[in-house]
Amino acid sequence: MSLQSPFLFTVCQVGAEPALKKEVARDFPQLKFAYSRPGFVTFKSAELLSVDSDFQLVFARLSGLSMPKIASIPDFVKTLQSLNLSGPICVHVFERDQHIPGEEPKGFASGEWSGPAIEELRVQASSLSLEINRPAQAGELVVSLILLGPQEYWMGVHRARAGLSFYPGANPGVTQPKEAPSRAFVKLEEGLLWSKAPLQAKDLAVEFGSAPGGASYSLLKRGLRVIGVDPGKMDPRILEEKNYRHISKTVATVFPPELSQSVQWLLVDMNVKPSVSLFAVDRFAVAFKSSLQGVLLTIKLNEWKMADEIPSMIEHVRSMGMSRVKATQLPSNGQEIFIAGFTRQALL
Questions:
Q1: Do residues 140 and 159 touch, judged by C-beta distance below 8 A?
Q2: Is 184-347 in CATH node 2.60.120.10?
Q3: What are the domain boundaries of the chain?
Q4: Which CATH code for domain 4-170?
Q5: SS3 for 225?
Q6: What is the model's pTM?
């Protein structure tokens, strides 16, 4: 079987499917909507797509060739054999998202659908050299067995290139440690993995909207110095950190001289409109342009229609002096996106 298909599969957050469809229609009009389930959407191209076709989509955290639909694990194994892949084969088995991040029912844990599928796959494909759910290597082909429901399967193939495409379902499985004050820890850890932000120990990061301190904890454990700006209450454990300083003010009442003469990173995670977050960062990006390495921004989409503004948001961040800007919706993001922008000096 050739590694070509007219169909593209995408994995997204539950609730983001309409925004993904609009993004595809705007940026890749040659792709037409084909099929959808919560957290999973496919599109059809007028021409065959190859496994190296690259569609960079904000709301699709993973995409690849959609293969002919399969009815069972033996069917998956048969199709896998027809691909004639050599050497150990990287196979990712995962479930589509079932709930909006942070809104999972109490006691929910993924794996109820994929666990039995993995066990059956090990039995049915015992003669094949499969490496199941290990992180892929850069440039490696990955065959995905996607569970859309109990014993409801979909097959896809993608090349691990960048971002989180190395992990099953583009989800690295970051968990919140007990000592982290909030889920912001998980979101920033995912964002750093996805963006490969070149943070260095002793860098100074200023975080606007820091309370209660989840993202600050992520930065501190990497050895960064952190200034948190937020009128909200910080976790006492963060306040005790020697490399942390808290400014209990709103961002609008803080001025660059109160921070430092040299800042490497600006972070934002505030529950305000996108324009407010972006304009809040502007004056600090200008003030610290000689030392700034980049910006890491969690932008709330208070209404889904705000997704239409993402291209202009990216251009706004670029105007801050960023040479490279990209955006995504991370596995743990709520109704929000993550934008990473790096200055030229950060890319050297």
A1: yes
A2: no
A3: 4-170, 184-347
A4: 3.30.2130
A5: strand
A6: 0.96
